[in-house]
Amino acid sequence: MTEGGRPASIPLAAWAQNVETFVAQNALPDDPTPVPLNTLPLDDWHRRHGARMVPFAGYSMPVQYDLSGDLADRCRGGVMAEHLHTRRAAGLFDVSHMGQAFLTGTGVADALERLVPADIAGLKPGRQRYTMLTNEAGGIIDDLLVTKLADNRLFLVVNASRKEVDFRHLAANLPEDIQVEPQEDRALLALQGPAAAAVVGRLSPEAAMLPFLGFTTVRIFDILCHVSRLGYTGEDGFEISVPVGDVEELADTLVAHPEVVPIGLGARDSLRLEAGLCLYGNDLDELTSPIEAGLTWTIGKRRKLSWDFPGGSLMRDQLDHGATRIRVGIRPDGRAPARAQTTIVAADGTEAGTVTSGGFGPSLNAPIAMGYVRRDLAADGTKLSLIVRGKTIPATVVPLPFVPHRYVR
Amino acid sequence: MASKSADKRFTKDHEWVVLDGDIATVGITDHAQEQLGDLVHVELPALERSVAEGEACAVVESVKAASDVYSPLAGKVVEINETIVEDPSIVNSDAEGEGWFFRIELDDPEAFEALLDQDAYDEYLETL
């Protein structure tokens, strides 16, 4: 859980002068945005397409677009329209801020299993898993995607805000003969939405055939692309890793298709929240375990025989005896969003927990939130109260995700 | 949409005010709604509430964040625009018209003259 102290609202003047404020608030409290900001390889491209740039995780990032020309005919831009466009057609997200790395060496899968709860050794080449680097206290250092490229080579994608921590942790804790190779010269684009497969299929029929959590390397025109079938919106989609020098051509190629418009961080956040997906720093942190976070499913069956990963015995204990707090979905009554840090109160007036991600779900046209509540209050249908700007708002515990996933099967 | 008006005044907090007798109509400027983006929720002050100049008395929320709206002048709230509570997008489409927030009976109608006029507000926007 992150530390409190954020005001419930900020002056309008602060907004108008500095629309960035809200995303800066989403950064980790212990991770002040460095100055100067890193720029994305597509920085100019975003600005040409009408992006409003904001600082996030040390990068200047597009938060939303004021689209023009052909793109404006497809989507008027703005968080709401970009969100709905992604659910209806396809959205292009620049996620080049995320950390990419290869891990190379004999026995690399077994070596990484010393640091994560997932079954990595059992992954077939060309398949991927969502997992976490955990600490001895059972907390989460970061959540990440691991791809097996070959028996001696893995590909990792980690959070931007955590990449330095992660790569240092990996280098310090993997055997010396395992090489950690950060890929600073690679960009990452995500194409998400029900039309994503059709668009990718026109460029690479092979990539469009990928199963969910499948990986392949293809050429799109002359660009060597590492393509994954996954995403952070709950929709079918792809992430495409390319050399920095090729990313603009790929972005232009993708938005040339009539289904595609660029989508900013604002909609990326509302899409992932509707999909019930965790944001590191909000919903996950070093004091929160995968059991509390509802991510027990990421612990490999074989790994549950020995619990031989950092924090494993603590996690087993939490599973056996029940975690004291659990991540749940929350639907506030009315239209007022309950933001992260909002206090949750039980029906009997006792403290119940804290909202960790909250906002407005454009697809539901209603406020939605996720938070951690006491175990006895975690059942679906439990009535809670949220304290928003001093007022008590009734709310209900609901199942996650808020919007059903539409991953390819 | 916003029309240039000689008797419309502004604050550096991006509220606008129109005066009719001693009744002031208050809203947020087109610039403010543009910066905020899609509004999803508006909270207005209670009727009869006395508000001080500069007092936070309404809230606007976009998809991602909440912002306070301040009363540009002191007075008593005599009317609120329930329509924007039901459909906050009206503030995005017509911030300085149909998207007004509330009306206050001013304690001192002359205080209106001290607010920024359109030219002064436009100049202020240039400095941001």
Automatic annotation (TrEMBL), chain A:
**Chain residues that bind substrate:** E239
Q: Which organism is it from?
A: Rhodopila globiformis
What protein name is recorded for this chain? Answer: aminomethyltransferase
Q: Which GO terms describe its molecular function?
A: aminomethyltransferase activity; transaminase activity
What GO terms describe the biological role, i.e. biological process, of this protein?
glycine catabolic process
Recorded hits in InterPro entries, A to Z, give:
GcvT, GcvT/YgfZ/DmdA, GcvT/YgfZ_C, GcvT_C, GCVT_N, TrmE/GcvT-like
Known catalytic reactions: N(6)-[(R)-S(8)-aminomethyldihydrolipoyl]-L-lysyl-[protein] + (6S)-5,6,7,8-tetrahydrofolate = N(6)-[(R)-dihydrolipoyl]-L-lysyl-[protein] + (6R)-5,10-methylene-5,6,7,8-tetrahydrofolate + NH4(+)
EC numbers listed for it are 2.1.2.10
GCVT N-terminal domain location:
43-301
From TrEMBL, chain B:
Q: Does the keyword Zinc apply?
A: no
Source domain of life is: Bacteria
According to the record, the signal peptide region is none
Q: What's an example GO cellular component term for this entry? A: cytosol
**Pfam families to which the protein is assigned, alphabetical:** GCV_H (PF01597)
The cross-references to SUPFAM superfamilies, in alphabetical order and at most eight, read: Single hybrid motif
A single Gene Ontology biological process assigned to it is:
glycine decarboxylation via glycine cleavage system
Paste the cofactor note: Binds 1 lipoyl cofactor covalently.
Q: Which InterPro entries match?
A: Biotin_lipoyl, GCV_H, GCV_H/Fam206, GCV_H_sub, Single_hybrid_motif
Recite the UniProt keywords alphabetically.
Lipoyl
Lipoyl-binding domain span: 23-105
**Names of required cofactors:** (R)-lipoate
In the record, N6-lipoyllysine modifications are located at: K64
Q: Does the keyword Cell membrane apply?
A: no
Which family does the record assign? Belongs to the GcvH family.
Entry function: The glycine cleavage system catalyzes the degradation of glycine. The H protein shuttles the methylamine group of glycine from the P protein to the T protein.
Subunit arrangement? The glycine cleavage system is composed of four proteins: P, T, L and H.
Write the protein's name. Answer: Glycine cleavage system H protein
Q: Could you tell me which species this protein originates from? A: Rhodopila globiformis (Rhodopseudomonas globiformis)
Name the encoding gene, please. gcvH
